[in-house]
Amino acid sequence: xLAFLVQRISQAFLVMFVISMxxxxxQDGLGDPLQELVGMSVSxxxxxxxxxxxxxxxPIYVQYVRFAGNALQGDLGISYFYGKPTLxxxxxxxxxxxxxxxxASLIIMVFSVPIGVYAAIRPQAxxxxxxxxxxxxxxSIPVFLTAIMLIQLFSIGVTIEMFPTDTGWGAWLxxxxxxxxxxxSYGRGDELTHLFGTWNSGFFSSDxxxxxxxxxxxxxxxxxxxxIRLIRAEMxxxxxxxxxxxxxxxxxxxxxxxxLHALKNTMLPVITxxxxxxxxxxxxxxxxxxxxQWPGMGLMFLEAITRSxxxxxxxxxxxxxxxxxxxxxxxxxxxxxxxxxxxxxxxKA
Amino acid sequence: xxxxxxxxxxxxxxSFLWYSFKRDKVAIISFxxxxxxxxxxxxxxxxxxxDPYDLALIDxxxxxxxxxxxxxxxxxxxxxxxxxxxxxxxxxxxxxRVSLMIGFGAVILQAVLGILFGLLAGYMGGRVDAIxxxxxxxxxxxxxxMVAIIVGAVFKASFGSLMFGExxxxxxxxxxxxxxxxxxxxxxxxxxxxxxKKEYVDAAKVMGFRTNRIMFxxxxxxxxxxxxxxxTVQIANAIIxxxxxxxxxxxxPETQPSLGSLIKSGFDYIQSGSWWIxxxxxxxxxxxxxxxxxxxxxxxxVMNPRLYKG
Lengths: 349, 310
Description:
Shape of chain A: flat
Strand content of chain A: under 5%
Largest interface: A-B, 49 and 43 residues
Helix content of chain B: over 70%
Number of strands of chain B: 0
Oligomer: heterodimer
């Protein structure tokens, strides 16, 4: 177990090292800090002197060591656009993204477990097939398109007038197929509650919650089909196993078997896979935040790209890389702990 | 010559693949829809009423016309026009062409990389295997979309928007191919591990064939069916990734739009009620990806039911 622990943690450090190298290469290759600091009027000699003073003429490995050292002390440079330390800028944008992810995760948990379990217990039922069909379609719709459709339906509203209004059913169909819209589709709203530090929360006012609805549903829509399929597949496998058959033979009620004995063993792999998927959600937050102009880290990153704000791009890469590495390592460790059949030395068979 | 084609057709007709295809309505419908879309994309220059790349044909007075069937529509533009006055039907046909080109191109690139690295890792084993698979693991744990966004962002920042726009097709093929190779490499490696224990490989070794020959002429043909299954799904993934990158502004420019950049340019006008500019290309994208995924599901069931679950 100790060997496994050491191996995974050292691997995490190795990955972080590679990420920092990439980030450094981007910073070194793309940005000329001198260009940003001084204008055109400064002469070449002065520039060279400044270069020396800033250490830009040092050998590349000295510059890297300096970069890594600063990064370890929490100094990832100053954003060109915001004029503030990049980590502070990220800290200001982090809560919005976190609330988006939390909201989406809640939606995923509430819907995926009952649907997945139902589809596993009754694979032939009409409702199961309906949900599995929906989830195939759901996987094929990109998250930004779901978001746009939600905006059209629930923010702008749809008016259907194609049925004849002189008949009762025509008017009824027109009314039933039309939507009112009115849900907010832009930003986080004005009524944010200050919690602590840089965290302003939208969870504590109705306006903030309404603003969360569409972005969270969009973000959840991409993961929900995956989770439903995963829970269904795991549950069906568990239901085939000997101890479930024994429980049936013993005459336990099907509710007790399904929800007490089977569900417990289903959720284990789901939780670990879920951990990794939550990390992957970060990529989808970039898309969701772009559609809804949600002031989180993803939108900040995209704006940094269009503004060529190199320090902020680099800092974002480092922070997101760290988040990924930490979640993956923790998930790996938990998986190793709860599932002893995982090869502890990590050697592939 | 004639007999050869007849017997080849007979082989297809008697195969299990054809047998199960005939019996699967979903597969047949998906295949017909996909074929229709691919053909109309290939022949877009002949089918499209106007050439959306030709600025001289665009009239700004025609902008934001709705599709036929709504009030204010113009019969010359069956699916309406976008904000610049381009015919939606033509831009969608050309856009599908660009999206499919990038999708296929990216999958060919990742197949080349994936097969090469997968074969190497599986057949050589040892340190080569450990290093290649560790890279694949780490890259996959970051999610392919994230890798593609970051690489795209770096490229765009280093080339500049204008230059990036000119070579965007090749850039996107490169970015998506690079981001997704681990998927194929893993599959290839797994089947190589199973194949290399078989007797025909021992026989080839005894006969003194070189490693390259054994890897590419003997083992590779036996790993092709899982590659086809994964490759099909990967085309759908590549098209989605391309659309996502273009939507973020890291992909095709508006002058040479793909489905993703059409959705992006239409999104700015959705609040003013012109839903067709963004939702029509969106619908085409969803149908395209859906039929490819359905065909992939069918292929997986037929060729290798134990490839992956769920």
